Amino acid sequence: GxxxxxxxxxxxxxxxxxxxxxxxSLDFQATTMFxxxxxxxxxxxxxxTSNEGSKATYEQGVEKDKFLINHxxxxxxxxxxxxxxxxxxxxxxxxxxxxxxxxxxQFFGPGTRLTVL
Amino acid sequence: xxxxxxxxAALSVxxxxxxxxxxxxxxxxxxxxxxxxxxPGKGLTSLLLIQSSQREQTxxxxxxxxxxxxxxxTLYIAASQPGDSATYLCAVRLNDYKLSFGAGTTVTVRx
Lengths: 117, 111
Known about the structure:
The complex is a heterodimer.
Chain A: E1 4-7, E2 10-13, E3 19-25, E4 32-38, E5 44-51, E6 57-58, E7 67-73, E8 76-81, E9 90-100, E10 103-108, E11 112-116
Chain B: E1 4-7, E2 10-14, E3 19-25, E4 32-38, E5 44-51, E6 56-59, E7 62-67, E8 72-77, E9 86-93, E10 99-101, E11 105-110
Parallel strand pairs in B: 2-11
Antiparallel strand pairs in B: 1-3, 3-8, 4-5, 4-9, 6-7, 7-8, 9-10, 9-11
């Protein structure tokens, strides 16, 4: 149980285009999902917290107009990178929160590698 | 702001040797601490989760300790195998469900 999927697993796009990444909780309902980005040999940095049916909460320094997050259902959150540029190339990972034995644990997706040419 | 540091950044050991990975954090008011494994180009696999009230957790060859007052955790991997080669990340959670990650320790186990 507690499986999180991401689609696509990798994407290459031209500079100036928009890219949508999906994050799904396959066997549980997730009221909260998180989006992270990871640069090579660096740690995961939290970008935003996505709550079902409400606006996402962005971390300081993250442009909300550039990284659009939609959490339309209890099993799906999407991240759209608008007008992508080469500096947006990164590994994007989502996680979903699920109550486990009285506490909440995050389960992570496999990640999406974005390359902007 | 919570800062998480992992030392060493990289480690190479011969097969069979025990591994010791260190994680330190600046704010001791954590809810829990979690150790993850990440293979190249892949997502995260949770290894062990230690609640703030616990001192250690064990799973097979893995043992993680937590000293909240000193802001430290250690992951021990006994009798390392080439399949243990990966990057190991620690993350601490404050009460708002957000995780703060360290930069990881990249482990290479030589056959």
